[in-house]
Amino acid sequence: MDVFELARKYHDELGIKDPSMATMAAELFDELGLKMVEFLKEEGYALVGTKFIDYDKGLVLDVTKGEKRFEITLRKS
Predict the structure, then answer these.
(1) 58 φ, ψ to 5°?
(2) What is the pTM of this model?
(3) Got the DSSP string for 30-50?
(4) How far apart are CA 22 and CA 68, in angstroms?
(5) What is the span of the domain harbouring residue 33?
(6) What is the bridge-based pairing of β-strands 68-75 and 46-53?
(7) Distance (Å, rounded) from C-alpha 35 to C-alpha 64?
(8) Do 74 and 50 form a contact (C-beta atoms < 8 A)?
(9) Angle (nearest 5°) at CA 27 between 74 and 35
(10) Largest Cα span, the chain
């Protein structure tokens, strides 16, 4: 899958609105972010939102399960 197909998935499945940010997520994390969200959904978590921190290495997945809320940070080193 090329980076633009991945970017579209990051847009559609993770709700990253800005096309350039979705493309950056695809370039940095390949399918990792998508697979993490897929796994979390299978475990009963719901994705509430996503955001970038420091604009080049950290993607935060905001998830909930029941009344609990969590932030999971994917960071490229």
Answers:
(1) -125, 125
(2) 0.87
(3) TTHHHHHHHHHHHTT-EEEEE
(4) 27
(5) 3-75
(6) unpaired
(7) 17
(8) no
(9) 50
(10) 37
How many distinct structural domains can be found in the chain? 1
Tell me the two tokens of residue 51: 């955001």
pLDDT in the model for residue 77: 84
CA-based nearest residue to 2, from 21, 30, 42, 34: 30
Residues 26-77: pLDDT tens digits?
999 999 999 999 999 999 999 999 998 876 689 999 999 999 999 999 998 8
Contact criterion met (CB below 8 Å) for 69 and 48: yes
Query: Token digits for 2?
Result: 């090329």
Helix (H) or strand (E) holding 72: strand 68-75
Place of tokens 């994917």: 74
